[in-house]
């Protein structure tokens, strides 16, 4: 069974799981206001799929997959940094906060969520993105743009050898 919903929609999470409903949709990046300063560009959109399910023990759960590309600010050169997003998370629904079991062992990676009659789909997507995005996004070494920071620029333009080159020179002398 498939339902389509606008991103401003809320879902009844328990009902969504029990009926195995599914939403395939896109969300415009400019709507992701909680990502705030992380974003270097508000352009574009992400795709997401939210699915309800019952596990083998008939426990209700939600699965969210978000994919696309976000343009973040590189923490080194402050230039735009295109970051591929491909995040999937799965939650078991519980009635109350107290129903969330303690992890059985260190490998227990189950996630839980308190069921809600009007859960915001957008909140869920933003939560997932905030967890999935790098805390300090930056280009790979040497990939920072020409607008790099002053220090990077001085290092690039100076003719001083790298520490490794210096070490080589010292070795040869010895
Ligand atoms: Zn950079």
UniProtKB/TrEMBL annotation:
Pfam families assigned: YceD
Signal keyword on record: no
One annotated Gene Ontology cellular component of this protein: cytosol
InterPro entries the record matches: YceD, YceD_bac
Origin: domain of life: Bacteria
GO biological process annotation, one example: ribosome biogenesis
Keywords associated with the record: Ribosome biogenesis
Family in the record: Belongs to the DUF177 domain family.
Role noted for this protein: Plays a role in synthesis, processing and/or stability of 23S rRNA.
Protein name per the record: Large ribosomal RNA subunit accumulation protein YceD
Record organism: Pseudomethylobacillus aquaticus
Organism classification: Bacteria, Pseudomonadati, Pseudomonadota, Betaproteobacteria, Nitrosomonadales
